[in-house]
Task: structure prediction
Amino acid sequence: LTFDALYAERYDDMVRVAFLMVGDNAVAEELVQDAFARVHQRWARIDNPRAYLHVAVLNTARNELRRRSLRRRRPFDPRPDAQTDQASVELLDALGVLSARQRAVVVLRFYEGRSEAEIADLLGVRPGTVKSLLHRALNRLREVIEP
Amino acid sequence: VNHPNPTPIGEHDELHRRLTTDLRTTAGQAISSPDARRRIDRRVEAHRRRSTVVRAVAAVAVTTFGATGVLVARRHEAPTAVQTGVTPASVPAPGTRPRPTVPSDAEVSGGFDPDRFLPSYIPLGYRFTDGSLEKTPVREPAPRLTQVFRPPGPLGTGPVISLFLGDPAVYPDPPPDDVPALTTGPWSVKVKRIRDSEWRAWFDDGPRVVRLWAPIDLSEEDIRAFVGTVRWDAAAGRYTAVGNPRGLVETALDRGRFGPFVVVAHVYLRRSGSADIVIVTRKGWPGDVLELRARIPDERHRPVDINGRPGLLSVSRFDGGADAFVTFLWPDGSYAEVRSAFATPEGMGDRVSDDELLAVARSLPSVDESSWSGTPG
Result:
């Protein structure tokens, strides 16, 4: 696997994941580019570039949300583009009620279709924590989406 | 995990269905820029440049003492805050050496990531080399002394000569055969120019080798005249200069001011003569800056905002550009500085742009006195 191949294979996917995390296309791209730059820097030392990239994107997205939170802004402040349809705008708004970790779990579970064990691996937590985060996230989303 | 109201997650759950389909629809509306690949390359280049500068600043060979040392940015609180941050390979005498400590994550904001930050504090006994913190080899302290001779009168009115006393273990080279000895009274000394502003002197009264830094416009005759006046004062444990040839010699020592610290002054004189910086160092730990004693901001100071604090910025270059550092001066008198090389054979400062120095300086977390873990020796 070359860096260019990884870029061709994963860039768009990673932007989508980051977009679901931060709700802003431009910021999502920034985060993913930064993650790719970090992968490039450590390329010789990384055993599994795909996994490393994935974790890097998730972590940078979570850090971005944390930074926004520290700036006392609404952490998740979706800025969908004009072409984003109404249902997606509503969904992004709904995701805004979740914590960064809950949002990561929901995206990994429902967008990427990953198992709880895989999610636990990516986020560096125990499977029980994933189960708990997912449960609370769905309950919260249910309140917003299905009032 | 036992949840009081478990909600099934399955194919028949409406929320599950919506998430599965709508998340994909939503994600599919994210658009990638056509020039994303190029922008990644730019980021890689930016990372590389920052990393290069960090290493240039951090992993500096302090050739004076044959050691790999570091001189990193530090925050100085006016007027007499004790600062640290340098790890010369040779250390103070046993029993007086501060216990090395590795900074915790809390001390090094954001973790120890050399790609992003220089550590604000490098504990004594450690050095920052090639992106990692490693313990320095411990050896017996080399006898040495740093003294600065400058002309009397206001700072900035004349040339400055710095003396560094090394030991033969650090300066293994014997006196050169092709240099005639200069005999002055009981002394015999050989002086040789190593490079533009650096001279080395071999005294015949013991295994001492002296390194001299001087303004590059001093002639060999000036240096010889100066060296000829220097005497070793065993009782005082220091060199003294006898006479005052050409107005060069005047000690700038200020002993005892810091109580248990034996203080010597290390004076850097900006060549333009428009600003002076006096840096007080601790004896035995050259480069370990305790205080910046005098500063005269000049027109090259410009207003900046560092971590939300307005202040003045100065990029200073010494020694023909081989040595450079950035200082930030705040209205309350505190300041921080970032230095590049402390002088290497090749010089380093001239390969680091002002903006690169600034970028490193801006990435540094602030340092406070709590990071000082040493015990005054």
In short: The two ends of chain B are 56 Å apart (CA to CA). Chain B has four helices and 20 strands.
